[in-house]
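Reopening this ticket.

The earlier resolution said the output was attached, but the attachment link was broken on my side. Pasting everything inline this time so it's all in one place.
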Amino acid sequence: MSIVEPDKPSTRKFITVDCPCGRALRATLDMAGQEISCWECHRMVRVPVPRSPERAFRVIQEGLQEVFEARWLFLLFVGAAALTGVLCVPRIGVPLSTLVLFVGALGYGELIRQCGIDYWEFDDWKDPRQVVKRVVGAASLALGVAAPMLLSRGGFGESPRFTTVGLILGLLGLMTLPLLMFLIYARDNRGSIGWRRGVSVLARYPVATVLALSLVPLGVVVSETVLAIASGYQGMLPFMVLDLFPGSEYYAEQYKIPKYGNYTKFELPESRFIRLYFRRLHQGYTLTGALPASLSKKTFILASPWTLELTDSSYLLTRAFYAQVSAMILFVFLALQSRFLGAISSLDSTQSPAPEAEE
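Inline output:
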């Protein structure tokens, strides 16, 4: 991603820089981000990059647009498919999914890191300290994403429930883990920005930081909305609400839903199923959490008190399809967040020149 200020008419041609010795220096705009020598004390002084909302908007917009390029969407689709496939492994799909999420978290960090320059390079992966920090950060992010499924009270394969405490912890994780990844992976043309500079950059752009952190929670809302509308339109919402969430027989009696009825008709769900869905949603159960978690659990349709005009395998494929849709949506929002954070790290830098090819 290019982070050079595009050419445009401007009345401002010079930047004033104060040297620690007290001398006021003057540099041209194209020297922003570089170092100049003080003619009084001969100390090297860095020329700051002019801050402006317009420039910040252009830099961030350019970074976000890259996510919707065909190559990135294809990679995100492959990652979502790999996650869905691993979750389908009986009994151990949920713990195995953390390995896929770990690889995805490394990619999340790389999208942040490579945003600070305009070419791909991996030289700083040779530093063992950097490798350890990045691996720990990626593992923390992967475990944080998988935590609802790993810590489900019913065990692997059961729908996770978000209690008040769990929701607060989840929101804290959604805020702190991306910031941790930013502080570990962010860099500019001078190298890793480090913890001190990283905190300083985030503090200088608080609105951009808050918007970046809000992307993944927004992605969860979008995923749940898409799953509810799509499954409702295809006639699967009533059955999945009854089958995936625990305690459905009790709630079926309250809403006068008879057993052994066909609840997979290709028609919009009745109002009682919609009310039941929102009640379970209020209790902390979501399709976004239940569908991926349920893939590793063996299903036996004939034992269900609700009629499903599908076989066990076709029902698994249906759930896998919805889980793939959900994973793809969340992966897109995670990619948007990583590029957003990477763009923030580059706002106080200028483009680093690409290395010359060796002959």
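Reporter confirms the inline version is readable. The two ends are 26 Å apart (CA to CA). Strands lie at 14-18, 24-28, 35-37, 44-46, 187-188, 191-192.
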